[in-house]
Design brief:
Oligomer: homodimer
Strand order of the largest sheet of chain A: 1-2
CATH architecture of chain A: Orthogonal Bundle
Helix content of chain A: 55-70%
Largest interface: A-B, 49 and 49 residues
Radius of gyration of chain A: 18 Å
CATH topology of chain A: Hypothetical protein af1432
Order of helices and strands of chain A: HEEHHHHHHHHH
Structural class of chain A: mainly alpha
Distance between the termini of chain A: 61 Å
CATH superfamily of chain A: Hypothetical protein af1432
Largest sheet of chain A: 2 strands, antiparallel
Number of strands of chain A: 2
CATH class of chain A: Mainly Alpha
Strand content of chain A: under 5%
Number of domains of chain A: 1
């Protein structure tokens, strides 16, 4: 089977899929909802893609949810090389992460057959640039998921890193930008967390 | 926000997505590719959905790959109640598992708003019944992934459970049924594993 050889299209696709397996070993700051351990970026990506399927009705009319799903499935692959950065990291760390992720995208998508590699790389760039409704909705889900985790864990990384409500609300702006309904919902969770005493008020 | 209350549509969707988080705690027989630990069903589902995106060209012409992806994202949710069953389990265990999975589907999809719950349940039934090209391709990927894992791990569950090449080839038939190309590829991996001595020949 020539196509399955190292340079053939199927061979390159399988090579890419083997590389992708490493995302299962990249740990995030957030825990899974039973609180037993940190979440990894592969299962996080699955949860986001499922959210796109289930919460699609919260996206602006005309949003292509299949494109959103495809974006969410690949958006974290760069963490295989670059690791996950905590959402409240400072600007210097964010810039360093950004450079590392772009280098990772160059390497990882180039494992695929060239046309397919370019297509998935363009999808990743779209997610990063956040200009289309699809990218905005995908980013909103990516931002909402840890808010849900922290809320239902009764504090989570908010408490572990002494994050305040004002900082969370800054991040929630990006949720509202992708989905007005989900933005409102996230703000309600923040307010409720403050009222219940597991998120500190203030900036 | 009324829709986010316990009986409102958003409230039910969030409830479902919280329940889905438990799939991250369901362990499969297969290991992740670095051999460090067992794979869980959430990251497995992500890997399959990514395979659908990348290997879509191996599906019969006209296959709706977005539907395949949606199916793969939800196909294992029933394991939250029913657990994962090893693919080489006997017929009695398979029948018991089948009943447990149907009961789980009744419970889990009913968490959603009724229309959406019926839609996702129909998608799960379609996957199980394996009548459409989409379901056949999705099942082929679900069957291929552990073959890849065992091959690249140099034995994996084939060795751990003393599985023989003939048994693997019986399972590979379902891959060929969803994709002729991937069926050929899987057979080549089985032959190669036998030649390299980490899969025993015979029935």
């Amino acid at each position: 089977m020539e196509s399955a050889g190292p340079g053939g299209p199927l061979g390159r696709q399988i090579r890419f899929l083997r590389e992708a397996d490493q995302l299962k070993g990249v740990l995030r700051q957030s825990s899974i909802l039973d609180g037993s351990r940190k979440e990894n970026s592969a299962e996080h990506s699955w949860h986001l893609a499922l959210m796109a399927q289930v919460l699609g009705g919260c996206a602006p009319p005309g949003t292509d949810l299949n494109r959103v799903t495809a974006m969410l499935l690949i958006h974290d692959l760069v963490e295989i090389d670059a690791g996950d950065l905590f959402v409240y990291a400072d600007a210097t760390a964010q810039a360093r992460q950004d450079a590392a992720e772009h280098a990772a995208a160059d390497r990882i998508f180039a494992l695929l057959p060239p046309d397919q590699g370019r297509e998935l790389r363009a999808l990743w760039d779209e997610f990063e640039e956040r200009r289309t409704p699809e990218a905005r909705f995908a980013r909103a889900l990516d931002r909402l998921q840890p808010v849900l985790a922290n809320y239902y864990l009764g504090g989570g990384t908010w408490q572990a890193h002494a994050v305040r409500a004002g900082q969370v609300l800054d991040k929630v702006a990006l949720i509202a930008d992708g989905s007005a309904v989900l933005g409102d919902f996230a703000r309600e969770l923040v307010d409720s967390a403050v009222r219940q005493g597991f998120l500190s008020p203030g900036e």
